[in-house]
Design brief:
This protein is α/β, with parallel strands linked by helices. The protein is about 35% helix and about 20% strand.
Length: about 525
Amino acid sequence: QTIMSKPDILWKGFPSFSATANVNDAAADCVLVIADLKNGLDAVPEPFNSQITNLSNTDAGVKEEVTFAALSGVAGGRVCYSPTGPVNRDYDDVRRVFDAATKGIERCVKAGATKVLIVVPSFQRFPRAAESAVLGACYGLYAPLEQREFQPEKVEKVTNILVYGMDQQAVDKIASIELGKRVARDVGGGDPERMAPLKVAEYCKAVFEGTCVSCKVDQDPDMILKEYPLLHAVARCSMVVERHWPCVIHLEYNPEGEVNETFFLVGKGVSYDTGGLDIKAGGIMAGMHRDKCGAAAVAGIMMSLAQAKPKGIRVVGRLAMVRNSCGANGYVADEVILSRAGRRVRVVNTDAEGRMAMGDVLALSKEDALNAVNPRLMTVATLTGHAVRAYGEGYSIVIDSSAAENAGVRERLVKSGDAIADPFEVSTLRREDWDMIKPKYGTEDVVQCNTAASSATARGHQFPAAFLQAASGLDDHQAHSDKPLAYSHIDMAGAALMHPKKPSGAPVAAFLAAFAGL
């Protein structure tokens, strides 16, 4: 398999994006109309409105199913209608538009279209419907990195996306978001060898070269042991295979002008999770190459920042990359490991490796945050099955410390995520979560986990956020502290989407909309 060159690895197959005010724009060869064709037909512009009415006189299914038709006076002389279905009920959200765009663009591709003009009438409830439609269309077009490398001539044939009624500045912003989601999908969806830890580092060096985001990699095993002992414990078994060695990837974006907020993002990057010696048995290991989607999202956010260059925010992204292998040198339950923050961590379950991988990287970010302007710390991870059990597929979960709540972190994430088809649910840390990680014996300061699966554990996605604070020393910077630090934990196990679905790229769009003005 041929590995793409640096310019091609990200950009080959990525369409150009432009605004247009003309449905007959010669730069397009097909029009895609996304609308509520039953209840919102009045908002659909001509000549599409009249054609839908005429078609529905002989086929009522036009308003319910994707339809392709010839139409003079519009780009390419053909149009695809992709209905959203109802959008006026309490439980309808802008994902109706996103999903309709995905289905519609796939139909356009089947028709041979390569330059698609997207028309989205206004939706009173969804002010960012057009942006959500573009992101939905791009999700439908995305092809995995390995497929682009192996069969470039067979995938991603749409070269141009035109957006009707949107100004170019807004189109550029949504293109920046999509570029970040592309990076997140590449890393998160890459197989365990193509996106082994050091391969992720190579990819990041390639795509960030020449941008305003710096990229540095810690990969020396002795350094990993000294600086990130919890991550090193997870990596111990994989160290016998050099290509599986761990690393920590540091990405940093500094804006022009004044900094108003500083974000420290720590992403879980488990390139493959066997469960370690608490092995994932019974067929549940398949798909665990997606256990790096948190780190992938952090890389994606950084790529969007590199492209859009927003002002006012500084962002430091760190990817904790490791493979949780199984073998004679694997870490085991009952070990006590001293964290970077000086906390004695008792291991209980080797399949709770994500919190171990992130703990010391979070401690480093905490140290940096103490001297930063309005710091906000975040861990981003596909951390628990309980997150999926609690809220289902398609949702990220945010848990705020009191300082983060006061800073409006979760409020902004929820509002922005709802607006741009990247939804969040909210959970809360309670005293029971701290009780779960309390030391049980004189040898430890904090207990890593319990012996049951998270999905079978009460508050299984909440208490790991308490562990991360305790293991990293962030619990010294809560409300009682002279220097409280805002910390948010994002468990996006449900939002990442499992194989064979395409990776979602969550929560890249929500973060950028909430904090970067995109």
